[in-house]
Amino acid sequence: MSRTPQTDVLLVVMGPPHTGELTTSVFRLLQALLERGASVQVWACGYSTMLSQEALGETKPANLLDRYAQYPTTVVLIRELLEAFPGRLHWFGCRACSEHRGATGHIPEVRMRAPHTFGGHVHAATKTLFMGVA
User: Fold this and answer.
1) First to last CA, the chain
2) What torsion, rounded to 10 degrees, do the Cα atoms 86, 78, 110, 44 define?
């Protein structure tokens, strides 16, 4: 297992990503932090581990109001941010939460970690911010 990176912020994302504006808020905050020079690690927990499933593909299903528009999935957004901010963004997922929910098959850029390693991530960050509920 690789070492936990030292970062300015640990962003812990918990809960189902499809019940409100949580996912949008997470990605907006994440991009703003990175654009301002912060280093960030994301820890996806609970149903938020589904954000990085490879099965999501590249685009969301068609929008019936604009069937020619294509919208990226969270997998694409995660990859784009990781590519745009190499060494400053690290995305982790809770392996137990993922397996418990059947949310396996994550993109290789996302590292799954055992829940007992979470404390090390908190320790490695200057600030920790929780978003959502499990």
Assistant:
1) 26
2) 120
Tell me, yes or no, whether 1 lies in a domain. Answer: no
Q: Mean pLDDT over residues 31-41, rounded? A: 98
Domain count, the chain: 1
CATH number at residue 15: 3.40.1260.10
Where is 79: in which H helix or E strand? helix 74-84
Query: Is 2 among the domain residues?
Result: no
In degrees, rounded to 5, the angle at the alpha carbon of residue 36 between the alpha carbons of residues 34 and 41 is 30
Dump pLDDT digits (tens) for 3-32.
899 999 999 999 888 778 999 999 999 999
Instruction: Give the per-residue pLDDT at 20.
Output: 83
Domain of residue 32 covers 7-131
Element (H, E) at 78: helix 74-84
Residue at 110 is within a domain = yes
Specify the pLDDT at position 77. Answer: 97
66 located within any domain: yes
Tell me: pLDDT of 1 over 60.
Answer: no
Proportion of the chain above pLDDT 90, given as a percent: 78
For residue 127, the cross-strand partners are 9
